[in-house]
């Protein structure tokens, strides 16, 4: 696809609503050795909305999510074909700085993975690596603001020197979100961020996703269709490596276009 087509694709007008588009993927294939896990997927990730990736286990949701910040580069034998752009820039171009890319497109994993460092250092880490704070004062400000945005500040402000790993699971996940936010990303990818959490911690993360929406483009993989319905405005349904259907969440859950989507959301398989 040429640059003009990408520019055209950068405004999505499906369902009659104009959207700013942050990322555009075109004809993406992903292989693990000889096995093809993603087959010809094209999608736009809007700037101001939450996009949910749903589908049965093994359909390729996580694989596709990881193509958006080149996390698949770290998997031996994985190969990505196609074109993925962030604000029109090809993220697979050889000139792309992958460390910078992963700051711009941050990621939160299924299992909270704080570093074995203090709460403060967990949040400060990326800021330090990317040289984003010019003084201790500025660093403290960034850490405070990130913890506030992640809804964790009030719970940890008096114990910033305690280990991040000593927090509860839900707090650890919010700490990981604060860590992603600290480097001022444009996109946040979340790979089943609540699957290891209890219902109360899950509700807090969902509330947080609502608050983060609009500030960051968010894509979230979830097994939980109620969660997709609660947190997202756009939903992408994957099946056997294909993107079967993509559209407004409310439309997809009330009036799916494809039989396979209908079967999945009514619990017929998966
Ligand atoms: N590192 C890997 N090496 C080889 N095959 C892999 C690897 N990671 C994933 N796969 C395969 O790719 C396919 C898609 O997996 P993926 O984890 O992306 O699916 P998913 O929809 O996220 O599944 P789940 O919901 O169970 O997490 C599966 O067949 C899986 O076995």
TrEMBL record:
Residues 23-265 form the ABC transporter domain. Keywords: ATP-binding, Nucleotide-binding, Phosphate transport, Transport. InterPro entries: AAA+_ATPase, ABC_transporter-like_ATP-bd, ABC_transporter-like_CS, P-loop_NTPase, PstB-like. Pfam families: ABC_tran. One of its GO terms (molecular function) is ATP hydrolysis activity. It comes from the Bacteria. The keyword Nucleotide-binding applies. GO terms for biological process: phosphate ion transmembrane transport. The keyword Nucleotide-binding applies. One of its GO terms (cellular component) is membrane. This is Phosphate ABC transporter ATP-binding protein.
């Amino acid at each position: 696809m040429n640059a003009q087509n990408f520019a055209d694709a950068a405004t999505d007008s499906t369902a009659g609503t104009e959207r700013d588009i942050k990322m555009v993927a075109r004809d993406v294939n992903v292989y693990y050795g000889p096995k093809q896990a993603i087959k010809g997927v094209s999608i736009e990730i809007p700037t101001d909305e939450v996009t949910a990736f749903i589908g049965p286990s093994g359909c390729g949701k996580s694989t596709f999510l990881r193509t958006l910040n080149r996390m698949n580069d770290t998997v031996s034998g994985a190969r990505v074909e196609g074109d993925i752009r962030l604000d029109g820039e090809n993220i697979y171009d050889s000139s792309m700085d992958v460390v910078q890319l992963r700051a711009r497109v941050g990621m939160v994993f299924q299992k909270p993975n704080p570093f074995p460092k203090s709460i403060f250092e967990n949040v400060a880490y990326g800021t330090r690596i990317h040289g984003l704070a010019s003084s201790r004062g500025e660093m403290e400000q960034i850490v405070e603001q990130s913890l506030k945005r992640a809804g964790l500040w009030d719970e940890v402000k008096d114990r910033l020197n305690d280990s991040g790993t000593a927090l509860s699971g839900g707090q650890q996940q919010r700490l990981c979100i604060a860590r992603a936010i600290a480097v001022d990303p444009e996109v946040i990818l979340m790979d089943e961020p609540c699957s290891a959490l209890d219902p109360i911690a899950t509700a807090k993360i969902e509330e947080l996703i609502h608050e983060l929406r609009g500030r960051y483009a968010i894509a979230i993989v979830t097994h939980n269709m109620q969660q997709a319905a609660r947190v997202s405005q756009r939903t992408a349904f994957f099946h056997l490596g294909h993107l079967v259907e993509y559209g407004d969440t409310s439309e997809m859950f009330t009036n799916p276009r494809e039989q396979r989507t209908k079967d999945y959301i009514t619990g017929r398989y998966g």
